[in-house]
Amino acid sequence: MKVTMRVDGADVAAEIDRPGESLLATLRDRLGRTGSKNACEQGECGSCTVLLDGAPVCSCLVATAQCEGRDVKTVVGAVPRPVRDAFVQCGAVQCGFCTPGLLVSVADLLGRNGDPSDLDIREALAGNLCRCTGYEKIIDAVHTAAAGLAGEPR
Amino acid sequence: MPEPATPTPPPWAAGGVGHTPAPAARPDAAHEHAAPPAADTGPRSSATGAGPRNAAAHSGPRSGADAPHRPQPPGEPAAAPRTGAELPQEPRPPIGPPSPPASAAPTLDGEAAYRTRTSAAVPANAVTARPDGTVGQSPIRPDAEAKVNGTFDYASDLAFDGMLWGHTLRSPHPRALIRSIDTGPALALPGVAAVLTAADVPGKLHYGLIEADQPVLAPGEVNYQGEPVAIVAAETLDLARRAAERIAVDYEPLEPQCDPSEAVEAGAYFRYQPVRVGDPDTAEAAVVVTREYEVGMQDQAPLGPESGVAVPTGGGLVLHVATQWLHSDLEQIAPCLGLEPERIHLEMAGIGGAFGAREDLSVQIHMAMLALRTGRPVKMMYDRAESFLGHVHRHPARMRYEHGADADGHLVYVKAHIVLDGGAYASTTEAVVGNAASLAVGPYRVEHASIDAWGARTNNPPCGAMRGFGAVQTCFAYESQMDALADALDLDPLEIRRRNAIARGDQLITGQVIDAYEPDPAAPADPDRARPFSPLADLLDRFTDLPVPPVPADRDIVELPGGTGNTTHGEGVRRGVGYGVGLKNICYSEGFDDYSTARVRLELGGPEHDGEPVAYIHTAAAEVGQGHWNLQTQIARTELGVRHVVLLPNDTKIGSAGSSSASRQSYMTGGAVKAACEAVRDLWQDRDLADGPIEATRVFRHRATKPMDPVTGQGDSHVQLALCVHRATVDVDVELGLVKVVDLTCVQDVGKILNPVALEGQIHGGTAQGLGLAVMEEIVTDGGRVKNASFTDYLIPTILDMPPMRLRIVENADPEAPYGLRGAGEPPTLSSTPAIVAAIRDATGLPLTRVPVRPEHLTVRRPS
């Protein structure tokens, strides 16, 4: 079947041959958009988080067949520059495999709450596993990103 | 080839290698005239039998079969280059060599330059760093921009034209004979290109890091659940998986040996290592504590799955792999493929974390076999469940410890009986046992010790390298014992450690003398000037001005044990505080010939570099996330005084860098890059870069170590020792057995801070993995079968599980190490586990002799 959707601002069409194919598999293997990472395929690690019509989802748990006509934003299209810069500057990136999913979750959080507390951050990012950082620098980065976004016109 | 003339020994070969003392950096003149780093004259072209096709192919980006092809999404520009885009407009530094520091070693040789008037080509996948940051600073990582943009190519992101997908069929049985395998039904599926079994292995049937005992594909029997039996290549991954299910394997299940203690008694073990010093049987102690401890099987759980692509090149192969040690991979792969190593080129793909899990081979030989058979590129990528079965784990341990002390708490003797479960195949068990035995009492002075350590062979999952490598297990036991002694003598946990803290001039139980410490001159002076400097007492004393955090007045429920589960509003919650000390050996031990190779080339840059000198660095060192690429650029800027640094791809065209493990890359490849830069700098004094580039290759070795005596364990087996101390504060809901770690404060001696941000990241991350082992992480097996091979059932710490972490970083330099550094990645993983368990004991009064501590350990009273 053919599924058309909007990915990071571009209209794309994907021909899928399995009804159960995940949005993550379509993005990565059919569309070559490898920014979203596959680390568990069970919705446990958050590495594949994308915004689906603006809401954060694990793209490994969404069937591509459900995405007809919908808007998908990956790390490429969902994350404001100051959020990426904050991760780079604060040392929140080590191996970086969790980073694309985390960035999407952070973008979602900061879209809802422009000045989150540490606890707000911990709750919002509880679905994104990171094995390298112990999360300290990630919390620093979210605060830095919030300040960066506050300082720029929205 | 830029390899040392001596044959490369197997990793950690105990005593098998010549131990000629070597200067820290030794000239390697044979390497100086090697091909320029980017010239395409390596194994690839020799494998295809053709030289560079033309000048453009010679100097341009990678071309031909091994050039990654990424389908280009419509409407999206090409992937951004891996460069720091913004170059700050700073005044240009003068173009000329910096004066060598007064203490610099004299020029090592006079012919270190590779000189040519033509500029070396830079591969497309070279990494250009932003032009600032010396040793001691925290420049932006050169890989960070691509990682936040989603354009960094991890191994699992690679795609090639005409690529097939590979998949592995694994044994469902922990032990069985294979009566027959019928691949016909799988081959009958349209789109299946190959189905291979042990009968198709082109060369040697076995591989291994130390001992080649692990079958490439099971030849007639399987010895653990998940052992590879057959491999499939097909047009899609889904098809390859379905084809694997159709392979008919007739197994005859056998009774597995799953008890490591019984295995040892039956003589099934990979290594037995005793340590004997003094006479613990006659030593008189006022107080004796005897306990048995258990450590569960921990998984490294890097988020990036095992993955790679094998690309046939006509008689040879290019392997794009995410590994911790390219050259060890090559040495294991080539014999199994029946190919000369020169016909195989390994190129590092982006690594999504490692922590030891990428030290053993996973997809490498399998995808290579499929590529050779089909003549097409073959990609393999494990899913999470397969990853849990497809790499080694941290050895589970059973340890019986007896500590005797005098009435003042000074250790009199230690006896320990340590059984580590190595599982079905050798992997690195031999070296893990050496660490467990030699570090079995930790950083404490004791004259009498009797240690027996085994690495059992069972039908459990194979175990090998994980951050901490044999030192984690005994650390949990000896630190628990120190607390038990403190309890028995009513001593403060810091005080008993202080009284026994090893000092300069003391000996480990192996007889190795504690040396190589230059106390930080800025540190407060020891009031007791008569006593020799104790690197441990120094760290313990730093806690006096790091108070335990108070219990906040108004706590959000998320901050309580159970969190949003709404299990308590504070009732039944008790607070506890505990300490843990870890002692880790840095670099490879026991006589292993541990070295790293670096080539540095300095040339005048083009307009994109403002005509300034550019340093090109070529090593095979794995950037696993720790920040090693960044450190290399910092070293080059420090030693050469240049701003611009380009990192050439990590591959097997340069000599080995050794593994990104044992907290060794800053020391070893950092040392090699430093030595190569120093050589270039010295040559630059007499040359003008306008006349051509200057290049030098250096092989760096640390001081030689010795094997442990097989009977007494005596010997200077370690290079460098590193200490870390944690204090944990926990809240425990004693009714429900739920634990919330509320604070982790760490004091660690790193010798010299090379990059503050990266260092803090290592300590935070290592601490988190120690927390995981303390309260949640364990691969549960039942009769040799893994019961929880998923992130649903194998829990790793989330951001809600991690407390704020306060760090106090100490710089007691090691004068033998580059810049005085001390390896830093592993020690925090040792100490955080016992600190957290000590804190839970403090809160509950329970003995807690097993990690991970589970709710039932806190709430269920066992019949005694």
Structure description:
The complex is a heterodimer of chains A (154) and B (864). Chain A is α+β, with helices and mostly antiparallel strands and 154 residues long. Chain A folds into two domains: 75 residues, Ubiquitin-like (UB roll), CATH 3.10.20; 72 residues, Orthogonal Bundle (DNA polymerase, domain 1), CATH 1.10.150.120. Chain A is built from six helices and five strands. The termini of chain A are far apart. Chain B has 864 residues and is α+β, with helices and mostly antiparallel strands. Chain B is globular, with a radius of gyration of 27 Å. Helices cover 22% and strands 22% of the residues of chain B. The N terminus of chain B is likely disordered. Chain B contains 18 helices and 30 strands. In chain B, helix 7 crosses helix 8. At the A-B interface, strand 2, helix 3, helix 4, helix 5 and helix 6 of A face helix 3 and helix 16 of B.
Concise structural overview:
The complex is a heterodimer of chains A (154) and B (864). With 154 residues, chain A is of the alpha+beta class.
Strand order of the largest sheet of chain B: 5-9-3-16-13-14-15
Strand content of chain B: 15-25%
| Average pLDDT, all residues of chain B | 88
The total of beta strands of chain A comes to 5
Number of strands of chain B: 30
The level-1 CATH class of the largest domain in chain A: Alpha Beta
Structural domain count of chain A: 2
Radius of gyration of chain A over all CA atoms, rounded: 15 Å
* Helix/strand class of chain B: alpha+beta
N-to-C span of chain A: 39 Å
Give the domain tally of chain B. Answer: 3
Helices of chain A, by number, come to 6
CA-based gyration radius of chain B: 27 Å
Spatial arrangement of strands, main beta sheet of chain A: 2-1-5-3-4
How would you name the CATH homologous superfamily of the largest domain in chain A? Beta-grasp domain
Pfam families (chain A): Fer2, Fer2_2
Protein name (chain A): 2Fe-2S iron-sulfur cluster binding domain-containing protein
Organism (chain A): Glycomyces albidus
GO molecular function (chain A): 2 iron, 2 sulfur cluster binding; metal ion binding; oxidoreductase activity
